[in-house]
Amino acid sequence: METAFVKSTTNEGLCTISFFHPQSNSLPAAILQQLAQAITEAGKDKNCKLILVRSNGEKAFCAGASFDELTQIKTETEGLHFFSGFAQVINAMRTCGKIIIGRIHGKCVGGGVGLAAAVDYALATENAAVKLSELAVGIGPFVVGPAVERKIGLSAFSQLALDATAWRSAEWAHQKGLFAELYEDAQGLDEGINRIVSRLLASSEAALQELKTIFWKDTAHWETLLVERAAISGRLILSEESRKAIAAFKSK
Length: 252
Hints:
This protein has 252 residues and is of the alpha/beta class. The chain has one domain: Alpha-Beta Complex (2-enoyl-CoA Hydratase, Chain A, domain 1), CATH 3.90.226. The strands form 2 sheets. Strands 1-2-3-4-6-8 form a 6-stranded mixed beta sheet, sandwiched between helices. Strands 5-7 form a two-stranded parallel sheet. It is 50% helix and 15% strand. The mean pLDDT is 96. The protein starts with a strand and ends with a helix.
């Protein structure tokens, strides 16, 4: 089985941050920590003008929280620590000072939807269906919720959060504003990414930084809000209802 990783490479002003996990690009604590660190470091790198976040593989973009790690959480403190990993990644994206492009090549579940929402400009394929499945395992999309709601609005977010077992198509996500551009396949997706990356790398860096500030206006309180939300998930994941739901999902 291939080994999970987070890798960063910078070339001609573009920092590409890639992540991978053999279980459908799920997000264990170590990957979350490395992602947050990579984004933070790219934000400070003078050689980086623009960030591209992508996952490897050809199927799911990101399957969200690692069920293996969810089953290992025994206390509220451990739950808070795990779900705070998602808070750290979103806050790193929010505060890094660089525009972040997202390459969404496949399905997004839970925290994967949060990643897609937290980038500044997401491009996706028609295979990139989305689902916030948290309620189906006894918790809720509390940490990623502010990022998703900010991008698609309260009504669309509530539809995803409450209808937790239903997929919404990539076209639905495009119409709601989660995805800025939609392509038939990976080839078209990469052509679209090359186009927007070339255009932004040729743009004023100072102007891009000012736009980043404007895009994330009135979100400074997320530094504490997302951690508070992580505590809610960390408490609920300990319930017997949640344990049974996760076990059922893992047995499929």
